[in-house]
Specification:
Blueprint: H1 2-6, H2 8-24, E1 34-38, H3 46-51, E2 55-59, H4 63-73, E3 78-80, E4 94-100, H5 106-118, E5 120-130, H6 134-141, E6 152-153, H7 155-166, E7 169-175, E8 203-209
Parallel strand pairs: 1-2, 1-4, 2-3, 4-5, 5-6
Antiparallel strand pairs: 5-8, 7-8
Helix pairs in contact: 5-7
Length: 246
């Protein structure tokens, strides 16, 4: 994964992934809010999440990747050694959680998603490579001569899983919709693969909002049989007679 992101095509794809993640989390409040990033890897998204204004905590199980993430973030985030199926935090410890799906079958994905929901009080954003995308289909038809950037999952499986367990409002977006030959930013058709309102691209973000509905202006109470007095002028200081006492 690290070597792939060093290449020109990988850097271009990473830029589109970062833009999509930032766009997906734009509806979440930032100031004074805590965010947990699970499976941060080497920290390719961590600086972006910190720059968005979150009080960031990141977790990674593999020591070598955790060391790279710590070097990239410094003192800007707390980093913990933790697996995605057992997070060392209390229930509802964070306002939001970003879960980067790793490999594994549906059962392992379900356990990781439930654990992420357990520690979140406001919302969960799940990122993953989409096996139901055109790019992945072409990758399979070509005999998988080149390696895929990461473990892939079907987007409708992740969508259904989150809807069944979360009980909140879900929305999905994606990027890198075309073949991998278009992921390079120098391609003239690259502009068509930046953001899609549907999880059809090669890399997806499905966000589940758990927080309460936005407050609305309450309906004023009707006062029967009474009328409010006309407002009286208010003095900034002193009594009513203080003006005539001089």
């Amino acid at each position: 994964m690290k070597r792939w992101h060093w290449k020109t095509k990988g850097l271009s794809a990473l830029s589109k992934q970062q833009n999509l993640l930032q766009h997906s989390l734009a509806v979440w409040p930032r100031r004074g809010k805590t965010l947990l990033e699970v499976n941060c890897g080497q920290g390719i998204f961590s600086p972006l999440l910190w720059e968005c204004g979150f009080d960031l905590t990141i977790t990674e199980l593999r020591p070598e990747l955790r060391a790279r993430a710590a070097a990239a973030m410094g003192c800007r985030a707390e980093i913990a050694a933790a697996a995605d199926d057992h997070l060392p935090f209390d229930d509802s410890s964070f306002d939001g959680v970003v879960l980067h799906l790793s490999g594994g079958d549906r059962k392992k994905v379900e356990i990781a998603a439930r654990e992420a929901l357990r520690v979140s009080s406001g919302g969960l954003a799940v990122t993953f490579w989409n096996s139901a995308s055109l790019a992945y289909l072409l990758h399979c038809l070509q005999g998988r001569k080149s390696s895929w950037p990461g473990p892939a999952h079907k987007w409708w499986s992740i969508w259904r899983l989150l809807k069944d367990m979360g009980g909140g409002k879900a929305c999905g977006m994606s990027t890198l919709a075309g073949p991998r030959t278009l992921w390079n930013s120098t391609c003239p058709l690259g502009g068509c693969i930046h953001k899609l309102p549907l999880p059809l691209g090669a890399w997806c973000v499905i966000r589940l909002d758990l927080g309460p509905a936005r407050p609305v202006t309450p309906i004023p109470l009707k006062i029967k049989g009474q009328r409010l007095r006309r407002p009286e002028p208010v003095l900034e200081y002193g009594s009513k007679n203080s003006l005539n006492s001089q």
